[in-house]
Each structure stands twice: as C-alpha cells, then as structure tokens.
Amino acid sequence: MAKRSTLFIRIVEGKNLPVKDISGSSDPYCIVRIDSEAIIRTATIWKTLSPFWGEEYHVNLPPSFHTVSFYVMDEDSLSRDDVIGKVSVAKEILASKPQGLDGWLNLTEIDPDEEVQGEIHLQISITKEETSRKLRCHVFEARDLARKDRNGASDPFVRVMYNGKMYETTVVKKSCYPRWNESFEFEIDETFADNTLIVEVWDWDLVSKNDFLGKVLFNISKLCSIQQEEDWFRLIPIKPKEREDEGNLGSLRLQLKLRDETILFSNYYQPLTELLCQAVKTNINCSQSDLIRLIDETTTAESRQEVATNLVKLFLGQGLAREFLDVLFKLELTKTSEPNTLFRSNSLASKSMESFLKVAGMQYLHHVLGPTVSRIFEEKKYVELDPSKVEIREAGCTGLHRVQTETEVIQQSTHYLQSYLTDLLHSILKSIRHCPPIVRSAFRQLYERVQERFPDKEFRKVKFIAVTSFLCLRFFSPAIMSPKLFHLREKHPDARTSRTLLLLAKTVQIIGNLDTLASRSKESWMVPLLPAVQQGIAQLKEFITQLVSFEEKEDLDLQDRLSLQSSSIIKEGYLFLHKTREKGMLISSPFKKYYVTLCNDTLSYAKTSSSKKSSFIVLSKIRAIEKVEEKSFGNSHVMQIISNDDNEQNEILYMQCKVN
C-alpha cells in the first residue's frame, strides 16, 4: 500500500499584464514551481497582454510539498527575461477545496527575501543549572537551499539570535546541502519580553550584501515544557510586506485540483480488472456492453479525460485495447444521427481514442512529424499569409537592398509553406509500415464501423473523416502546434517558428476535414494554398485506404503481432543514464543521453529511437527503485534502479528523470 498526491494544473489565460517591451506589449510565459523546484514552462505567447495558454498537466507531488507557485515572465531575445509577477497557492488552500480551484488570481511582485526554500536540521534544548537555565541550539545541516550565486549554488552560514546576542556558524562554500555541526549556548533571561529564538540562514557574498535564505522561529516558553526538540524545520520567508501593487500586475486564470490517493496492492484491483475485461470480451459476440455503456453515461465532463486515459492503459496492458475502442465506437455511432458531428464532441470514445494514440502511437508520430518540424525550427523562415499580420520590415531580400512588398512576402510564404506541406505529406504517405499494428487495427475497426453505420453514397466521405478527425485533428495538428508537449523538441518555438507551425497545423486541419470550401469562407487568405490542399486531400484518402486495408494473410500476421503487443509502450523519450555494477565513488558527470522506452514488462534504452541495438531491464528483475540525494550527483532528479542480471548479480542504473 502506498500514498501519493497528484495535482491537476490547467494554466488557462492571463489578462491586464503590464507592458514590458518597447513595442507596447509583452511576450509572456509561465513557470510553475512546486516549492522551489521548477517543473513546467509553458509556451511563450508573443506580443500580447492577454495571453491564452490552455495547457494542462498532471503532476505527482512529494507528500511534503507546501506551495505551488506560478511565475509569469516576459521573454526577451537580447537580454535577461523580465519578471512580471507571481501567484502562490498553499497546500492548505488546495486541500480545503476538494472540488478544485477555478478562478482569476492577482499577480504580485516578487520579493527576493520571500523566495526561500529548503530545510534545516536543528536540535533545541533547555538545560537547568544551579542558578540559571541554558538554551542550547545545535546546528547540524541544511538541505535544498536556494541557489543565489552565478555558479548555481550558495555560500551558506547560519545566524542564531536570542535576547540581543548573536552567533554565526562558519561559511560553507558552494553548497546547497551544507553541514556545520556547531552548537551555541544562551542564558535564558526570564524577564526578557520577546522570548523567541531566531535561526536565520544567509548566503555569504564577498562584494555585495548577503542574501537571505530563510529562517525558523522558536517560542522558548513552549519549549520549556518539552525541554528538547530535534527535527528538520522548513525555512520560512521574512514577514510579507504590504502589497501596493496587487492587482496592478494583471491576473492569471488557473484551474487546480489536488488529490490524495491510497494505492493498494495489485491483487485488490483484480476483480475490477476481470469485470471490465469480461465486459469487453462479451461485446465481441453481442452488440452492446452494459458496463462500458454505464461508464460512458455516468462519466462527467470534468473526469472524462482521466477515465479515458486510465481505461486505455488498463486494456492495453490486458491486450484488449482494440476491443475496448470498438465498444466505444459502437456506442458513439448508435447515439449519432448526423454524420457531420461524429466524434467531434469530447465524448468518452473521442477521449479514449485520443489517449490511445498518445500511448501507442507516439513513436510513429515522431517518425512522421519529426523531420519536418526539425526543418522548420532550423530554417526559421518568416512565413505569413494573413495580410493584416505581414511585417514588411522582417522580410528583406537576401542580396538586394530593397524591402519586399506585401504581395511578395505572401508569395514567398506560400512557397515555404507548400514546401513544408509537401515534405509532411510525403512522410505520411511513406509511413504505413511504420504505423504500429495495434494503431492500424484500431483505425480499420473505426473505418468499418462508420461504413456500416452510414452506407449511403452521399456519406461516402464520412468513414475517411472519422479516421482523419483523430489522426489529423487530434494527433498530428496539436503536435505540430506544440511540439514540446509531444516531446518532438526540447524547447518551445520562438515567435517566428511558432507562427509557421500554426499555419502548417491549420493546413493539416483543412486537409483532415476533406473540405476546401471551409477554408475559403473562414480564412480567405489561405486560398493560395488550395491547390496543395486539394492534392493533399486526395493523397490522404489514398493513404487511409491503404492504412486500413490488409490481405487475408497479412491480417493473420497482424493478429499475431497484436498479441505480442500486449507489452505496449507506456512512456518513451530521451533521458540521461549511468550504469554500474558496483556501488562506489560517483564521478561528477557520468551520464549519457539515451532514448528510453518503458513497456509493461521491460525498460529499454538505446542511443536513438531508431537504434537497432538496445539494452533492457526486465521489470520483474527490478529489486528496488529509490531517489538519490542531490549531493551525490549535484542534481535533484536522479533515481537508482537496482536489478538482477542473468547471473543474479546486482546492476545499478542511475536515471536523471528530468532533461534540462
């Protein structure tokens, strides 16, 4: 049995942000911190004081966390990014709102003296002597202190104060995990009005003034009754100042929901797993599944995404993902009378198929989109088709001393965009053999079910649109617009690249809708791309026909491969690893970058996602997993995985769980 805390975070939007750039606007983005640890950076929304992000995250939290903070920053390409303000929400506030927090919160100014973190290990004791009582403070060590110096560390020392007297420890250079092991004694003055012991931690600086790192306060009157107290104490900031700027820095709309969960041993969940699997297996021989229909009807809109994700992972693990999706396809088709609305709502079927693609098709997505997205990032071409947004000054002719006209800019942009689209469509058309069998099988099932439901000639496009609504509109297009969220890139794009990606994603959406008329009425400036769009529609329909078509023998081979794919991919991406057989002295930078894949039964890693040679650990061979203290490697995101090799000898794999 284990306990865990998870936090749902949705960073919705901001409004009334202050101007930070000479253009009269700002380029805002958000950084999310759990206590002191930065865990999320949103995309930058360029040239706006009312940004919309709409980014969602599920974060597993340490049980000891205290605060989640949102820092709004203004990105600058030539100088250091400006701080706009922050919002902090304490754990107690989140815990008091089980239904979640949803609303606008005012940004406040950031005070360096309030930006504290870490804990200090102290022992406070009172001893009696013949004529007096002594107060002793033993300072052992501190951990996870704020980094105040340019070298990424601090030079901490401790200041202990009581009754007008002050002592200081030695300075520990370049450490956020200092050890002092020093003691200080004070004589207790019974007449002293302010009976408080103050322990402060500071960062020593040779030239500038020392930086405050946090403090702990002890009421000596309360301590007298227990005589001694020893523990790790959280450092707190200086008392907050009165805020004159509150509300003047704009506000942030957030949706937050904290959940504390108890995780039981797997055998406790076995009856439920068997019940769900039986409901799906029964559906193979009958038209409906009462249990799945009940889940579909009773799942609320707020929880639908979470339910869908968990069900998809469960059925993937049981080798029944295709059958589960088929049940949902049938339920959705039964409820749909108008084919134009098919799978367009956020139903359980839509959310489940979307989650399925993200789990089972992520490597395929990287294969298809990776080259084109990388090319756009590397070339950084100026691309704009909307006349109202064309910036003539940014589009000078190479080698000519003149500025391009608006028409020339649009013509050149059309050429660039057509080139990117051609590359992408070529990659899609050649990707059939790279598409995972389980994904192809799910699309075939969807295609056939829709064809059965809408067999008339007037609806002949509906079966294609059903596939493209997931493949293009819910999978490819979102990944093109936000490549970092789909692990296609390590960083968010700049303003120019972001606009190019958006225009390409729009074009893919138009092609996915199989309708060129829609683009003419909504955004007439997309008309120059219509020839490429029409060709893309024809190519995409041919691709889908091939994707869902199998020969009888190939179909049997596919079934065999599907049975082997019960070990489906849960998570994959690049991480830094270090492998050793013996515990010993750890060198400072032993880590190398590998492409790591976690499946239901193995953890494998190779130099790249396409490497033929890879190493793996069978999950049943893992004996322990634990976090490694930051001082071991100078990084707080390292864990060690201890497993047995074929000779039952211990092997240790160190994994840096956060790529910077």
Key structural traits:
7-stranded antiparallel β-sheet; 660 residues; alpha+beta
Describe it.
It contains 16 helices and 23 strands. Residues 559-566 and 583-588 have low confidence and may be disordered. Helix 5 (304-317) crosses helix 7 (348-360), helix 6 (321-335) runs parallel beside helix 10 (437-453) and helix 11 runs antiparallel to helix 12 (495-513). With 660 residues, it is an alpha+beta fold. The protein has a 7-stranded antiparallel sheet, with no helix packed on it. A 4-stranded antiparallel sheet has the order 4-1-16-7. The chain is 33% helix and 28% strand. It is globular. Keywords: GTPase activation. It comes from Polypterus senegalus (Senegal bichir). Residues 303-513 form the Ras-GAP domain.
